[in-house]
Amino acid sequence: MKYIVFSDFDGTITEQDVIMSIMSIFATSEWKEIRDKIFSKEITISEGVSQLFSLIPSSKKDEIVKWCLENIKIRDGFKDFLYFLKERHIPFIVLSGGLDFYIYPILKPYLDLITKVYSNQADFSGKFIKVKFFYWCDSFCNDDCGMCKSSVIRKYREFYDKVIYIGDSITDIVPSKISDIIFARDYLARELSKEGIAYFEYETFYDIKERLKSIL
């Protein structure tokens, strides 16, 4: 069996939702209304992410990165889990609807163990942060994701027998549904339960590792 692991970043690899944490510190109060519209699906993910970051001046870039490095915590067991996969020659791919300018600094200690990171890109050329999208939805998705996780997964599916997905939030619902083994928590777990879709719960990457020991 050839396995591949895809993982969300915000609230999955990290303990906090990094985007929402950044907004709570650096954005104006409108961010909460935009967040609520994303979760109620009044606006698309790409619209929401763009609107959120447009609330923050580009001049805050270095301050945001510094704050993230000092305050964002990686979920327990992450490095151990990456070594576990490396020993079994299983690729680990990060799929994030967040922005590169803080994701890469946070993941820097682990990048040699990560196969690839897919994310949106930040543009600081204007007064406020602009989001650039490169991984749009394919013909099988019309959710206007901006960073379409399911589209990326489909590009890999023909090369692997089983897709393992790890997530926690609204952007992880669709990619979970096209995966073979799902690890879910928080919002994602609640939504999958409503739809009767099987998943394994986790709190740390040690939990995921122990479960996969009996599968791989």
Describe it.
There is one protein chain. The longest helix is centred in the N-terminal third of the chain and has 11 residues, at 61-71. This protein has one domain: HAD superfamily/HAD-like (Rossmann fold). Helix 2 runs antiparallel to helix 3 (45-53), helix 4 packs parallel to helix 6 (100-107) and helix 5 (78-87) packs parallel to helix 10 (205-213). Helix 9 (186-194) links the parallel strand 6 and strand 7. With 216 residues, the protein is of the alpha/beta class. It contains 10 helices and 7 strands. 38% of the residues are buried.
Count of DSSP H/I helices: 10
Choose one word for the global shape.
Answer: globular
Largest sheet: 7 strands, mixed
Rounded average pLDDT: 95
User: How much helical structure, as a percent, in the residues?
Assistant: 40-55%
Give the H and E element order: EHHHHHEHEEHEHEHEH
Examine the coordinates and then state which fold CATH places here, giving the name of the CATH topology. Answer: Rossmann fold
Number of domains: 1
CATH class: Alpha Beta
> What is the SS-derived class?
alpha/beta
Looking at the overall shape, the CATH architecture is 3-Layer(aba) Sandwich
CATH superfamily: HAD superfamily/HAD-like
Rounded to an integer in angstroms, the radius of gyration calculated over CA atoms is 17 Å
Rounded to the nearest angstrom, the distance between the terminal CA atoms is 8 Å
Strand content: 15-25%
**Which regions are unreliable across 5 or more consecutive residues at pLDDT < 50?**
none
Subunit organisation of the chains: single chain
Strand order of the largest sheet: 4-3-2-1-5-6-7
